[in-house]
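Table S7 (text form). Paired inputs.
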Amino acid sequence: MTTTRTLPWTPPNTEDIEPLPVGEWWDAISAPTPVADRALELLGSRSGAVIQDDTYGKTYWLIGTDTARSWYLRQIRVLTALTDETTLLGVPPVSWGPEHRTHWRIPLGPNRYLTDTHRLAHALRQAVNDVLGPAPDGRQLCYRCQLPTDEPVPVAIEHSGSVAGATTYACPTHARDHPRDAMTQAAAMRRALDQGRAR
């Protein structure tokens, strides 16, 4: 005798992305896709379902409600129900894959629904350090909007010979618009490789 396991929740819309309120069935964790790529490597098969939004360069994990309200990680956002406003997450139909800009990067399934919050927190902490490097001391000015940001993202490092010079920072909003600096990306990849060898 075979039984079919049903999902505790499925996206109600089968035709298009639907904005759904967080906090009703699940909360969500948002990360920039480069950080999410590293976190997914670290989580391996222990990740639940994951939505990727290539329009905004964000990746979302679904987690249990009220399980991550106290989190504070650079460029990581906890989407949860708020007292005075509704927070919405655009959820694609369960059948949408990478042919759509917003899709299920890890498909929703009976054994892949919510991600364990503690495992996700551990993976994201390491991913933030691997990809973004050490947290800069204090606030920095965004090169584009010229406003101070508590979450500066290094987007370029001046180099002269083998010595690193001035670092250019951006706020999270403008960081994704900055052309990728090959030296900054190489440094992040080197950190990730070194830490992978040290495990």
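Next pair, protein 2 of 2.
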Amino acid sequence: MSENDFVFSPTSPEGEIHSDLPRVDSHVIQPEEYEEIPAITEEDLTHAVIKRPGQPDQPFLAKPNEAS
């Protein structure tokens, strides 16, 4: 990986991503790489945490459904 392949990120502590992004971008996704993910449930949201750089983790507080 050359110096020019680095991408700088304001959220990274060092300010850079150490990934070969041109190689990742050139990858063609194959049908066998797809997998259906399950729907997010209300129970999943009870365990959710909001993570922001430089701040403590905060529990996610779901808003009640308008239709309920």
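The chain has a mean pLDDT of 76.
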